[in-house]
From TrEMBL, chain A:
This is CobB/CobQ-like glutamine amidotransferase domain-containing protein. It comes from the Bacteria.
UniProtKB/TrEMBL annotation, chain B:
It holds the Pfam family MurT_C. This is Mur ligase-like protein. One of its GO terms (molecular function) is tetrahydrofolylpolyglutamate synthase activity. Transmembrane segments: none annotated. Keywords: ATP-binding, Ligase, Nucleotide-binding. The keyword Transmembrane helix does not apply. Signal peptide: none annotated. The keyword Ligase applies. Residues 242-347 form the Lipid II isoglutaminyl synthase (glutamine-hydrolyzing) subunit MurT C-terminal domain. It comes from Frisingicoccus caecimuris.
């Protein structure tokens, strides 16, 4: 099994490489490929079970778009073939139609018909509590942009509390087949044991086993208890 | 997005309180001959205090915004007052610590002659793309016309001898030997940065080296209590600051004792009414706690299980980690028989609780060691 981490020198903000740290602990015998921005992504020529990228700066986002643009057809083919993709934080915006930054419009890969709008003067921070595949999902948000587009039928998580892809939506992230893009950081896999199991299963792990399962579940349940308490402020 | 307070509302509130708006505050500042801003995520106060010590020792007068052990005044207020440390007006040199979240704005209003950026490395620019990209997205272009000193000058370090506590730097065309003030990477960075700044301010090697000999060594630990054969060290961390946390952990990792470490560097306010974002834990290197002498790591508060998982991922053995959902339980859960020392890492917000726990720990140690 191969897991490709795209451009870790860029997609490393908000501790989100912790996602891969945890996945490595769950899958110690599998191959993790770290592809730098100067190299050709492994997914172009190889069979990869998961492609991951984490949040980055706006400037690096533009470099990543240019880098991935030549592989757009291949990415769409892999999505159709139900390969797993996980793009956290603003990494998912690379696949949008566009990113708006004040007067500037940055063209994305246009695989999802969404716009991201950057707001440079402040970061939005908060917590999110929602549902994915009939399981509760928890996550944190640290972002300087929000997404606009109809994700009611292609969301990652349905909101219970907290803000979705933008202030007026409770639906968080985008999903098509096994492509999942989400603003949730924290890191997502560390905070959501059941989602991590789900992901590993769809990557091809027959009986997904969580590393440090007692600790990860304790942390998850503790956070669930807090999020279910209406007095807990979400942002 | 977070709600923006309107400029109008802000001005009215300040007017009601009799204060000045931010724009007005910059008016009527008498610019000193040399203005230095020191900013960054970690090490600002340390660098500023060290530079201040050397300047004092070498008989220079200056203005600065240090007001207490760890407290600073607004740089604008100090510049407006225009009083130096010796009480003189119209001093030619001003050294100001500036919060990294405000540096861009302040530089746009009053550009310094020198900007010292602590805790920033050449690969930091590549990784984050911009200074403080995580917090504020400060773009480097904001400082294009300002002379900057940062840790990129680390190539000046020739050798470090932690046994003799000496540091050799290659400055211009000669080797210079200085007293080493601390052993961690951050200590070294801060000292080199201070030396570079002092050179820029016109001091000589002889002046700097002589003053460093009488400087206080850098310390992580703010206070030590000794009871019988055991010590409790109070170490100041900072909420959600990977740089500060890593510095403290590195220091503990360099000790050679049998110890317990209590992690209380969480955000107290968020423990009460919200749920703390713990993403920052994954930007911290916890491996220094992997040394054999660290017998126990106690994680306290609502996020204790998040810390637990993070420590396990850093390779710390499960048996060594103890969770105390109620921070008070640290007192009874600490394996005091197994250790010589206890390091408590606290923050400004958790200080009171940490002090309370420390007092109870000391009492327990006294009782168990039969000390009256």
């Amino acid at each position: 099994m191969k897991i490709e981490i795209l451009f870790p020198e860029y997609g490393n903000l908000f501790g989100d490489l912790g996602n891969m740290m945890y996945l490595k602990a769950c899958l110690p015998d599998e191959e993790f490929i770290e592809t730098s921005i100067d190299s050709e992504p492994a997914f172009v020529t190889e069979d990869v079970n998961l492609i991951y990228m984490g949040p980055m700066t706006g400037k690096n986002q533009e470099a990543v778009i240019q880098k991935l643009l030549p592989y757009k057809d291949r990415i769409e083919e892999l999505i159709r073939k139900k390969k797993c993709f996980l793009f956290t934080g603003n990494a998912m915006e690379v696949f949008f139609r566009e990113i708006i930054d004040g007067e500037r419009r940055i063209e994305g890969l246009n695989i999802f018909d969404f716009s991201a709008v950057r707001v440079s003067d402040n970061y939005y921070t908060g917590n999110y509590y929602g549902e994915f595949n009939q399981r509760k999902v928890v996550g944190c948000k640290i972002q300087s942009s929000m997404a606009y587009g109809a994700n009611e039928h292609c969301y990652f998580a349905k909101g219970i509390r907290g803000t979705g892809i933008n202030r007026s939506s409770g639906y968080e992230g985008v999903r098509r087949q096994n492509f999942i893009g989400t603003y949730l950081v924290g890191p997502l896999l560390v905070m959501n044991p059941y989602f991590t199991q789900y992901l590993m299963y769809h990557m091809g792990v027959e009986k997904p086993k969580l590393a440090y399962d007692v600790a990860i579940k304790e942390a998850y349940h503790q956070r669930l208890t807090e999020f279910e308490n209406k007095r807990t402020v979400m942002e | 997005m977070k709600k923006n307070t309107s400029g109008f509302k802000d001005s009215i509130l300040k007017w009601i309180k009799g204060g000045k708006t931010a724009e007005e505050a910059f008016e009527h500042i008498q610019r000193p001959e040399k203005l230095v801003f020191i900013t960054g995520t970690k090490g600002k106060t340390t660098v500023l205090k060290l530079v201040g010590h050397v300047l004092r020792e070498s008989g220079r007068d200056f203005m600065w915004n240090i007001t207490g052990e760890d407290e600073t005044e607004s740089p604008v207020s100090v510049l407006r007052a225009g009083k130096s440390i010796s009480g003189q007006s119209g001093c030619g040199l001003a050294l100001m610590e500036v919060d990294e979240r405000e540096i861009r704005h302040i530089c746009s209003k009053i550009a310094p002659d020198l900007l010292v950026y602590t805790n920033a490395y050449s690969n930091y620019w590549d990784q984050k793309g911009s200074l403080e990209g995580v917090e504020k997205g400060v773009d480097m272009s904001a400082f294009e016309n300002i002379k900057m000193i940062s840790n990129e000058g680390k190539d000046k370090i020739v050798s470090v001898d932690t046994a003799k506590m000496t540091l050799v730097l290659q400055m211009a065309e000669k080797m210079e030997i200085y007293r080493l003030l601390g052993c961690t990477k951050a200590d070294l960075d801060n000292e080199v940065l201070a030396i570079e700044l002092l050179y820029q301010l016109g001091l000589t090697y002889e002046e700097i080296a002589a003053a460093l000999d009488s400087a206080e060594p850098f310390t992580i630990c703010r206070h030590v209590d000794t009871v019988g054969s055991k010590k409790v060290f109070m170490c100041r961390g900072e909420e959600q600051s990977p740089a500060v946390c890593a510095h403290v952990l590195e220091w503990i990792g360099r000790q050679s004792d049998d110890c317990a470490v209590v992690l209380m560097d969480y955000k107290q306010k968020e423990q009460v009414r919200a749920s703390e974002n713990t993403a920052w834990l994954y930007e911290v290197d916890y491996t220094p706690l992997n040394r054999t002498g660290v017998r126990q790591v106690l994680t306290a508060g609502n996020r204790c299980y998040d810390y637990w998982l993070r420590l396990l991922l850093a390779g710390i053995h499960e048996e060594r980690v103890t969770c105390a959902l109620r921070p008070e339980d640290v007192v009874k859960l600490a394996d005091i028989d197994e250790v010589e020392n206890i390091y408590m890492i606290f923050t400004r917000e958790t200080r009171a609780k940490a002090e309370e726990i420390k007092e109870h720990l000391l009492q327990r140690i006294k009782k168990e060691e039969g000390i009256k």
